Amino acid sequence: MKNIQDVLNGLGIEANNPGVSTGNIFWEGGAGSIDSVSPVNGAIIARVSMASSTDYSKVVEASKKAFADWKALPAPKRGAIVREIGEALRVHKVDLGTLVSYEMGKSAQEGLGEVQEMIDICDFAVGLSRQLYGLTMHSERTNHRMYEQWHPLGTVGIISAFNFPVAVWSWNAMIALVCGNVCIWKPSEKTPLTAIACQRIVQRVLQSNGIGEGVVSLVCGDRSIGELMAADNQIDLLSATGSTRMGKAVAERVGSRLGKCLLELGGNNAIIVTPGADFNVAIPAIVFGAVGTAGQRCTSTRRVIVHESIYELLKTKLQQVYGQLKVGDPLDEAMHMGPLIDRQAVEQYERTVQVIKEAGGVFLVEPGLLQGKGYESGCYVKPCVAEMSEQLDIVRQETFAPILYLLQYTDLEQAIALQNDVPQGLSSAIFTLNIREAELFLSSAGSDCGIANVNIGTSGAEIGGAFGGEKETGGGRESGSDAWKAYMRRQTNTINYGSDLPLAQGIKFDLE
């Protein structure tokens, strides 16, 4: 592993780094500090200053001032600057990916993959900067033309979660920037250092282009900063990623001021495995979906719904693969799974395991806390698989941990009903070689999730598709497709190029 101090130096993070930035000016936070603690070994990586309400107000004011100049740049020129951000991320990919893995605990490959997602969204946003299309419509009135166009909203607030400490921010920020908005980022207090690294990278690109402070801002702090953002009329759109509980609080606060919010919340994702499934495809998808990022993805596979005729065979296959999994230092490429984010997450894992046992669940692959050499942080757990006779309340809840539930079904309609019978609606998948089963799953009578896949797992998403879900997942969409419209306001325009003014309902005035 590269020395972590060398990684920080490569990213331009020096000692006593403040956590509040509007681009060119950094303020020392006035509300204490956050310790960035690595779940890999329990070490304190850095102490980051937290923003006070006064610091936050300064950032918002700088953003408001910056908006006028930034939106005046033609969209393709904004896109050209985002392209440079993507190039800078390419240069720093290894260092930033390593820091993501060390601060968050995901595998080295996943850390690099997360930075690659940032690069990919920059590429997507560059193309988008020339494709912010409106529509032209035929008017019912003679000598009139109608069309619609899209304008930037203003200040976009972004609240991100620890599990994707940089990628989800970039999904929002890069799209918002090419749309002409300015951004204020409140990262998870569990992963502040990766946020500061990103801010430094973007800051250098903006400075080289003569862009002043306030276009891209960072405010590190606790939940009080998020509460300020939710209540602030100066935040024109608040995009929040996190738990359903957090999302409900954000929606209530933003809704009380009739503001706009974009919510990406919890998932309780299921894979249906039919008798005709190709196990060589299904088994790797199930295992990666369940243990990738230690089960801490919103798209992690949490439930596998298996036809009764192949249930015993699938159990045997899963036991074989789970027996090969290696849990340890995520920066060691031989490891399949790293730690949970912190001891609080471990305690939640242990509580859930106990509830499963009390509910009559049978562990096909046993749970437990890993201890001893290499596990000193206390954040390493065993990925486990529990057989459940029915979909009990504990199964319908999201636990951010590598716990996989197995359920049986007899017919596909029952399987789809089980898949949908949870409060969340993010990602779903079916493994089948039967076209009728696949089409039913994708029909309006099938999955009720925002993402529905055939012969591919629930975990992960491509930049080109809109990402998000329904029900308690929040209904938001980020990244590809036409998700950019959430970051802009629609305006309908009518032009009268004639010499008279036809009025509604045939009303006329005698002006002679």
UniProtKB/TrEMBL annotation:
Keywords carried by this UniProt record: NAD, Oxidoreductase
The protein's assembly and partners: Homotetramer.
Family per record: Belongs to the aldehyde dehydrogenase family.
GO MF entries: aldehyde dehydrogenase (NAD+) activity
EC number(s) on file: 1.2.1.3
Protein name listed in UniProt: aldehyde dehydrogenase (NAD(+))
Segments forming domain Aldehyde dehydrogenase: 32-492
Pfam families from the UniProt entry: Aldedh
Catalytic machinery residues: E264
InterPro entries: Ald_DH/histidinol_DH, Ald_DH_C, Ald_DH_CS_GLU, Ald_DH_N, Aldehyde_DH_dom, ALDH7A1-like
Top EC class, one word: oxidoreductase
PROSITE patterns: ALDEHYDE_DEHYDR_GLU (PS00687)
Superkingdom of the source species: Bacteria
